[in-house]
Amino acid sequence: MSKIHANAIELDYEDHGTGKVLLLLHGLGSTKKDWDAQVPFFSKTHRVLTVDLRGHGNSSKPKDAYGVELMTEDIKAFLDQLDITKATFVGFSMGGAVAFQMAASYPDYVEKLVIVNSGPDFNDMGSIGEELLKSRTEFLETKGLDPLAKEISFNMFPEPHQLDLRTAFETRCKNNDYNAYYKSFVTLMDWGLGDQLEAIPTRTLVIGSDMDYTPEAFKQAYVSRMQNASLKIIENSRHGVVIDQPEAFNRELKKFLDHE
Question: What is the CATH number of the domain that holds 92?
Answer without folding.
Answer: 3.40.50.1820
